[in-house]
UniProtKB/TrEMBL annotation:
It holds the Pfam family S6PP. Residues 42-218 form the Sucrose phosphatase-like domain. It comes from Paenibacillus vandeheii. Keywords: Hydrolase. GO terms for molecular function: hydrolase activity. This is HAD family hydrolase. InterPro entries: HAD-like_sf, HAD_sf, SPP-like_dom, TPP-like. The keyword Hydrolase applies. It comes from the Bacteria. Transmembrane segments: none annotated.
Amino acid sequence: MIYASDLDQTLIYSRRSMGVSDDASGIVPAEWIRGELSAFMSDEALNRLKALPEDIIFMPVTTRTVEQYRRIQIFQQDVIPAYAVTSNGGNVLIEGEVDQSWNDYVRSQLQQHSAEAVEVRQMFSDVLNSDWVAGERLCDELFFAFVIHRDRMPIEQVTEKIQALESLGWEASIQGRKLYLVPSGVNKRAAVEYVRHQIGNVPVIASGDSLLDRSLLDFADYAIAPRHGELYREKQRNPKLVPYRFTEKSGIFAADEILEYVRSTHQVAIGDAVS
């Protein structure tokens, strides 16, 4: 069985997103940036992750770049996954190294089915300005990440631009203080499916909080999302369109429930296999 999970606001949390103070009990450091502690994880969730049965392959699946993923110390020291998906599916890491075959395949697909990044950036150029955009990056030469002041974002204008992305083979996601513009061919589902083909046709459990996680959750045999983030907000607007199970808690301790769901689902799946 594979447990494929988004990281930020699903398993690990920044000060802004975790919902408790950073001196609260029951949380542990997860990431440092230039010597400053920047992300945390529930201690209980970490212990449950460490205690997963040996026949569950834990696979981080993140929009972070390879570099950003590698600075999460928990996944370099405490729990070291054999497989990881970064760059929203643009890269697959096997034993910590980039699988060049997958990377080459993704880039060839983008050349065939998606507009070039420079065209997408040009389309947004008249709405992107310093009033609400604090920074931007072309991540791994694959997709854009903009740091934004969300309360200042011109919602109607940005929404119009996002709606036009589909015709270019791109999509968008707003997560906290980030606006992502991503080619549709760079997605978490395809990367996890690629790894599963190498492992074998085993069941997949998935967790995630954002619209960029939808393809992964839809692909999985079992799915759960935390009670916060884009998917939860979308569920409030359109309950029938968001069929996933959600945790009872929000914030950093939602991860405890997610890991308990993984454990209990594994037990049920094993029982069904035996019977």
